[in-house]
Design a protein that fits this description.
Blueprint (H helix, E strand, L loop, with lengths): L1 E4 L19 E2 L5 H9 L2 E4 L39
Antiparallel strand pairs: 1-2, 1-3
Length: 85
Amino acid sequence: MRIVAVPGRLVRDPVTRRLLDAQGIPFDPNDFYWARLIADGDAEVVEDLEPEPEPDAAAQPTIEAEPEGDPDPAAVSAPAEEPKA
């Protein structure tokens, strides 16, 4: 829940001393300050903003899995042997 000022009213947050904007702020419904502003009609409670949607799976890069089975022997290089002295 968030609290916003009704149109035509200026309401300050008592902690930060900033004016409430159109998005409002989260608040404690048991706080006497906010309860009084709501009861007087200076502020109103609104539901939280909807969370941002998850990014599409198509927008995220996919990582291809390596093929199963034995690797191609031509593609795998043998360890280099050290020359014998």
